[in-house]
């Protein structure tokens, strides 16, 4: 692993655990075992490091979403012929199973939570462009199934659904314990079952009657 990757790995863990503000450049370089000037050399400073770390989390998930949808379109011939469930799986699977695109779920959750709490930080331009592609591509694909919804309404529902995944990653296991009335370990969340539940919930939650 080269110096740049060592810094990113250390930053990812520290930012997720303590937040952006509480972590100094020195904290990162000490954890990475590199000299202080390395952050300026590779990232231009702390802000550049934050942007690169966020990109490292966001981009693989959104790239995977677009890849899955493109595969479905290729299989069925056109976007309007892709079954609704396949579109929703393409949207949700990368967030439910981020390990499939090289992102650990626990760290993704903590980093996203920190990013939302400390919302003064801008989304990196490359990540912003990918999000634009995701919203536009999926809005177009979903429009054929929900003709009564506007593009704006569809995007809002995509955000609602994505929030459901993040929330369940964080509290799903605790909720299962509380609902069972026991402190016993309920085991790990079955991600495939979670995906199925989230997809079903999202299809019904989009509102209106699917075509």
UniProtKB/TrEMBL annotation:
One MF term in the entry's GO annotations: transcription cis-regulatory region binding
InterPro entries named among the record's database cross-references: DNA-bd_HTH_TetR-type_CS (IPR023772), Homeodomain-like_sf (IPR009057), HTH-type_TetR-like_transc_reg (IPR050109), HTH_TetR (IPR001647), PsrA_TetR_C (IPR041586), Tet_transcr_reg_TetR-rel_C_sf (IPR036271)
DNA-binding region: 24-43
Keyword tags: DNA-binding
Keyword Magnesium: no
Domain HTH tetR-type: 1-61
Keyword RNA-binding set for record: no
PROSITE patterns: HTH_TETR_1, HTH_TETR_2
Name of one Pfam family that matches: TetR_C_30
Family matches, as PANTHER family: HTH-TYPE TRANSCRIPTIONAL REGULATOR RUTR, TRANSCRIPTIONAL REGULATORY PROTEIN
Protein name (database record): HTH tetR-type domain-containing protein
Organism: Oceaniferula spumae
